[in-house]
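Issue: ligand-bound run for MTE - logging full I/O for the record.

Environment: standard queue, default settings, no custom constraints.

Inputs:
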Amino acid sequence: MSLHERPAAASVGEAIPHESAALHVTGHALYTDDLGVRLQNLLHAWPVQAPHAHARVTGMDTAPALAVPGVIRVLTAADVPGVNDAGVKGDEPLFPSEVMYHGHPVAWVLGESEEAARLGATAVLVDYEPLPSIITVREAIAADSFQGAQSTLSRGDVAVGFAEAAHVFEGEFDIGGQEHFYLETNAALAHVDEARQVFIQSSTQHPTETQEIAAHVLGLPSSFVTVQCLRMGGGFGGKEMQPHGYAAIAALGATLTGRPVRLRLNRTLDLSLTGKRHPFHAVWKAGFGADGRFTALEVTLTSDGGWSLDLSEPVMARALCHVDNAYFIPHVLAHGRIARTNKTSQTAFRGFGGPQGMLVTEDILGRVAPLLGLGAHELRARNFYQPGEATPYGQPVRHAERMHDLWGQLLSRSDFRERQAGVAAFNAAHPHRKRGLAVTPVKFGIAFNFTAYNQAGALVHVYKDGSVLINHGGTEMGQGLHTKMIQVAATALGVPLTSVRLAPTRTDKVPNTSATAASSGADLNGGAVKDACDQIRAKLAEVAAGALGVHPDDVRFGAGRVFPLGHPERGMVFGTLVHDAYHLRTQLWAAGFYRTPGLHWNRVAMQGEPFKYFSYGASVSEVEVDGFTGAYRVRRADLLHDVGDSLSPLIDLGQVEGGFVQGLGWLTLEELRWDESDGPHRGRLQTQSASTYKLPSFSELPDVFNVALLERATESGVVYGSKAVGEPPLMLAISVREALREACAAFGPANRVTQLASPATPEAVYWALDAARSAKTEEVAADD
Ligand code: MTE
Ligand code: MOS
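Outputs:
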């Protein structure tokens, strides 16, 4: 059987709850920090934070901290035996001599209690020489403050495209960032054993990189450091790189004191220290033919990378690779550059730049549709990729017809056309309340752009009693990866789900793993788990063939039994076969490996086939806006999303719903504010808590929320025919923003551009509708 084929009665595809659901809701699921309270002699770490956005550290006196009762030690740069850097780019000193953002930790205090460490941190005396700071992207652009590589994606010749255009438009657009606000803040717990082995438990999406960073800080080979991630209370990309430094501090503290060290950021620390979704600034010029088709797009994207690079370069690459979204644009010139600002180091966040890239083009289409005399939904559909076309980076758009198909299905399921008429009637009857209805598509590339990351490993053990233990390189952050991997193993070995147990992710079980990211956790680790199970099954089939008197190819595994093809009654139970196989000295465990075939990517030329396939989806949203306040509700949302043949439909529905709501938060509610004044708190994050940073909750859910998975969508070449689901649904929320634009536009005259800020908070919506309303008043006045 090939990778995508499923045996009859497979466990994959069964709608089962998350493997830890019962533990999550009863409070029995443990997280990294919960494990610390079980340790004796535990020390607690707390940072000494700089009160400047940019400054030089000119002196430090730690003695007053040591006088605080319970303070054991203050960690400074002088304590680092290896490399004083927490990143992979060499630009993230763990103990900096130059403060790069407000709140930047310059030293860490270890105490017998968190309280002692915190009081110790306030007692450390640090002298600073304040330096000029850059806070906004626009300030960075003006000061020519950039970092990392600048990249350009191009196809054709935009000059030709603009010359052919019947209409050319230009504009500028600012996109806000987003705080991850995972429920579990960053945490690390480290101890050192008698053989100098360092064991770190970390809330990390990338245990291998956490291991490597801790090792280089400690000056140890990787083999001396083991990182385990039991589970995370959400990561969303925020724990792909940010955890390394915290793990390194805990490990350094444990190494120097010989005692276990716990470091857990409280919410304020997590909000003010860790990176967020990159805010973006875009300048664009777009050409359209008389038929509304794109002729050319020229765009310069500037992301706000914050103080260091971390993942800003790959995030920009993904943004550039998604400016096309679902649309064929013949001539493209897209530049990307990363601003360096004195803020937290912006990082991965669900979609990884894809949402920002896509939003630029969706914003353009939403803006210009009235000027082209087309409904925005019609303009979008006209520009869809046709089968046989390729992206600007040269990748053929596999299954382009799926987008057309899915779009048609969604429009009819959601009664789009009837409801358009309903919305128009409502708007005609209500001068102070307007509704808007919009539909937007998503096409998202699956695989890491960085080809080497597209590999994974797994370790599967079958014990003598027939029970199965699996380990794989992916981490669990609530997305249901472990649930899917249990289903994959049960399917591949033909045993019940209850026979399979999954052990926490550890670097000493599966080495050299990639981050659990780019939504590819199930594709990659599923491939590896299946490979390990297939090896074991092949060995067991040999043994069974002898016992059953058939050819090994004719041995079947299913429902915990092993039998000759077509004769389930003649078989034996799996445990019996395993027991016999052991006595015949058969290897009953295997290491599995998977690497995604067919990928290639030239990072400099920005050309190649970086993605294994595209994930498709579309959504229809309807909103109602109040003309006095700008307040709004999402009345209804209909989502249709392509996950191939789902490995786990309940999990996938949850991912689609959760992704959509998180996207809705990003686009409509969540607004990060930094102090941009010249006052004493310049650069300080002002939205440091849930009271000032508005997250979506149950009350922001659409009143009617219809979520469906595309049917008959098997994806060949992927484990059991499934597709990745983690990130793409976030971008389905773009239809909410576009519906808000439609509603604002309804306050004004027809065929007028409606500009809407992002996030489209009630305040931003108010200004957009007020501009529309004023234009109408002027029009009426002119008519008089
Ligand atoms: N779902 C939950 N519940 N919690 C999370 O932290 N992270 C998202 C997505 N869904 C996340 C989530 C992100 S950013 C990614 S890349 C994928 O899950 C990662 O997991 P996967 O590769 O197993 O899909
Ligand atoms: Mo997800 S942003 O790739 O961790």
